Amino acid sequence: LLPVVVNTIILNYAHAEQENAEKLGRIPLDNSWDMISTIANAVCCLMISLAIPLQFWSEDGPTDLIMNAMALLFIFTFDDLSSDVFGYLGKDDASFQRELSWNYALLSHCPIELGDLIN
Fold first, then answer.
1. 74: containing domain
2. What CA–CA distance (Å, rounded) separates 84 from 61?
């Protein structure tokens, strides 16, 4: 049952990432970092999906199964803004996207080029 739960969480995460990628495509960003992030998330999902049967076949008791499932889910959500690691920020993906959109909207009305200030 635990491998099914973990794989369902990964599947729901993949659907949410697809929706977020469609939203992020409307914002003028450097696509190279977005591609690196997508590849890293895909490799993480694939490796965890492949590691689940190997981890669970070698366990003896239910406590070990639960501990390994929680460890895999922690590694899976380590880079996500909604995980426990970034819980102190108090932001979810929707609020982060909203703030990012506001920053781009406000910077688009900036009367000077930012490159002139830096160089």
1. 2-118
2. 26
Q: Which residues of 20-33 are buried (b: 16+ CB within 10 A; e: fewer)?
A: eeeebeeeeeeeee
Q: What DSSP state is assigned to residue 116? A: H
Angle, CA 97 vertex, CA 112 and CA 107 arms, to 5°: 5
Question: Dihedral of the CA atoms 102, 104, 110, 114 (nearest 10)?
Answer: 140
What domain count does the chain have? 1
The long-range contacts involving 18-25, CB below 8 angstroms and separated by at least 24 positions, are 20/93, 20/97, 23/97, 24/97
pLDDT per residue, tens digit, the chain (119 aa), is: 667 877 788 788 788 878 877 777 777 667 787 778 778 888 888 888 888 888 878 878 888 888 888 888 777 777 666 556 566 677 777 787 788 888 888 877 877 776 777 76
Query: What does the alpha-carbon distance between residue 110 and residue 115 come to, in Å, rounded to a whole number?
Result: 12
Q: Please tell me the pTM assigned to this model.
A: 0.55
Task: Please name the residue that has the structure tokens 């932001």.
Answer: 91
